[in-house]
Amino acid sequence: MSFNTELTRKLGIRIPVVQGGMMWVGYAEMAAAVSNAGGLGILTALTQPTPEDLRKEIRRTKQMTKYPFGVNITLLPAINPPDYKAYAQVVLDEGIRIVETAGNSPGPVIKMLKAASPPCIVLHKCTTIKHAQSAVKLGVDFLSIDGFECAGHVGEHDITNFILLSRARQSLKVPFIASGGFADGQGLAAALSLGAEGINMGTRFMATIEAPIHNNIKKAIVDAQETDTQLVLRRWKNTSRLFKNKVTEDAYKIEVESKTGDFSEIQPYVSGARGRQVFLNGDKDFGVWTAGQVIGLIHDIPTCDELLSRIEKEAVETLSKANSLIGPKSKL
Ligand SMILES: Cc1cc2nc3c(=O)[nH]c(=O)nc-3n(C[C@H](O)[C@H](O)[C@H](O)COP(=O)(O)O)c2cc1C
C-alpha cells in the first residue's frame, strides 16, 4: 500500500512527510537522506553564508540524491537583511522547483518563485489562519500550518494543532500540511484525518543518524521530556520555543525582570552564533537551540530510512484500525 495525497502527487514523493527548514541542520546530508527515504528533504538557504555557497550546497545535494528536494527561505526581520532575492535566484538557476518559505513579508520572494518557468511549488509555513490567507492570495501551492507545539517561532497566539488544523480545513481553499508535534505514523494518520495532505517535521529529524549535528545533542533530545522546552522573547513579539537549559532560563529571567525591556540585555543569551556551536561541540548548555515539545515522543536515533518506513507502516496500521472500528449499523 502506498500513500496518494495532493502532497505526494504534486511533489513526486512516496511518503507524505516533509523535513522543514532547520538553521544549522538543513545541510545536504540531512535533505538528501530524507529524500532518499521517500520524504521531501529541504536545504536551509541561510545556513549558507552567501547565495554562491547555496549553489554549491544544492549541487552537493544533487550528487547525494536523485529524488526531489527543496530549499527553505526564511525571511526574518533584521537591520541588515540577507539578499533574499539573490538566494531565490540561485534556487531557480539551479533548477530547484520546490521552495518552503517562512517568516515576514514573503510576498516579493514568492512572486519571483511563482513567475519562474516552470513556476516553483511553494509551501508557505505560518502559525495563524490570517497569515495563511494572505499567503493564499500570493498564490502559494501548500500551507504548512505550524501549531503552538512546534520548534522555533511559534507566533503570538498559542493555538495548538487540534484547533489550528481544523480551522485550516474549514477556511483555506489551498491544500495544507500539518507541522509541529509530529514524530510518528499515528501523528501522520491524525493529521490526514484532520484534513491535512501530509506532515512537516523538524525536531524528529534532528535525532537521526544522518542529521549533521553532534551525537550528544541527539542523545539530549532522546533523554528529554515534553516539558523540557522554554518559550522566550514574547516580550518582543518574537516568541521562540527552545530546548530548556541554563541559558534559556537565564534569558527568561532577564525577559521577565528587565525594567527597561531593552533587547540588548537579552541579546547575548539568545545569540544564534552560540546556538550554532551547540550542534558542533555537543554541549547542550553552551547556547540556545531550537526544539519542539515533540522531544517527549522521541526515544531513538534511527536512520531517516528506518524512521520514514516506520512512520509509513504505523500510519497505514492506524488508519486501517480506525476503519475497522466502523461496522454494520448496531441494533442498540
Ligand atoms: C533546529 C531547528 C531549526 C529550525 N530553523 C528553522 C528555520 O531556519 N526556518 C524555518 O522556517 N523553520 C525552522 N525550524 C522549524 C521547522 O522547520 C519546523 O517548522 C518545526 O520544527 C516543526 O515542529 P517540530 O519540531 O515539532 O516538528 C527549525 C526547527 C528546528 C528544530
UniProtKB/TrEMBL annotation:
Organism domain of life: Eukaryota
Ranges in a coiled coil: none
SUPFAM superfamilies, per the entry: Inosine monophosphate dehydrogenase (IMPDH) (SSF51412)
Listed GO MF terms: nitronate monooxygenase activity
Annotated keywords: Flavoprotein, FMN, Oxidoreductase
Claim: Oxidoreductase is one of the keywords in the record: yes
Protein name in UniProt: Nitronate monooxygenase
